[in-house]
Design goal:
By secondary structure, this protein is of the alpha+beta class. It contains 11 helices and 24 strands. It has 2 domains: 91 residues, Pdz3 Domain (Roll), CATH 2.30.42.10; 234 residues, 2-enoyl-CoA Hydratase, Chain A, domain 1 (Alpha-Beta Complex), CATH 3.90.226.10.
Amino acid sequence: MRLWQRLCLLALCAQLIACGGPGQGSEQRAGLSSSPADCSLEAQRLWLEAWMRDWYFWYQSVPAVPMQSPGVLGPQDAMRAHFKSMLFQGSDNLPADRWSFVEDSERYQQYYGAGMNLGFGLSVAGQAEDPLPLRIRWVEPRSAAGAAGLQRGDIIVSMQSRPAQFWKQTNDFSVLLAKTVGDRFELEVLTDLGTRRVELVASLYPVTSVFVPAVESTWLGSDGRRAGYVFLKDFIDASMEPLGRALDELASRGIRDLILDLRYHGGGRLDLATRLASSFAPQSLRGEVFAELVYNDKHAGAIQVERFGDPAPLPKLELDRLVVLTGPRTCSASEVLINGLKSRSASLQVVSVGGKTCGKPFGFHPADACGLQYHAVNFMVRNARGQASELDGMTPDCVAGDDYQTPLGRAGDPLVESARYWLSYGRCPTPVQSQAATPRKSAAQTLGVQDGDAPRAMYR
């Protein structure tokens, strides 16, 4: 049974009606931006409980649990624990809420507002059952890891004096996340030149959301059409300018087909996803529905529509074919982009190549209160056909595995090779095989500690 059908069984579809323009329901959403009367612990508790019972997607499941005494915990840690105690614990039809979380308001503003992130700047890939070694899969160029010369494909021998196998077996990579500037992280890596020991010092660094390889960014296909490649990691304000430059350059070279690499795209702002979709979509879709945001049945009138429109500051490409590279770290707003484009136009052929996406059709309107940013699921996103992406992820049209070592976008990258094969021959290089659903981690493990990535979400 599909996600939207399961939600209907929970009586969430009783009042999900069609709607008009993008501004409809704005008055009904005013309560989303409420805040505590003051920052006393009692005022915060009363506000949070009222807000969750009003705007949380699964408000019916919020238990009447008393807030535990802070004890040795500070006020913020006490509020974090109380928030977690109110989350949906699952049912016969739906899993527990593994998406909602809390973070410091300052870190949220730094990332989504200024494009800055606090950390060491590396992400890894490796699971306990995976025979491959633990490898670095992504390095932020302007971070401590980038300055130390660490590269994608480097094999991790140890982290914080524990062998790589320990971290794979525990499946807990929270050690890769820094809490404050100046935190230290030690690792030993095996490179082409041998083994080296590196100490990283956490810093606040500019995020690199867009990457275009210096070579092989465009090529002439066997059918005579020019194709291009671009890697995109986030939908944040700081990503729009470099993404616009990259797409302008590809457009100037006359591309008609594009490989959009979203394999590590964790999500971000939905309005920016709409702009990118508008850049790719034919002009005939302008003003048409791209996606709909559906709230709980207390706020059926708050339903919100995202429409294809002016993509500025991105260029208008009007592609013939779009190949999206996906994997288990393709989440949230990036899934909306794929789901929304696939549902709309026969003139733009959209296929996905790689692995199953993470399965997150839900999003937030973050609530800022006394130094904490609460990200409780407020809405579900569905495409113009009324379909949300599946909770166990979107299955790719062509299955291909990431090797975590070939430079992104270059010849030999399994995902890129499969995408180029499809562009040349119109079929997958190997038959599509069913993929088992990925076991889901608990909320504590999923939020921000998976492979070293910082928490990402879908916002509007």
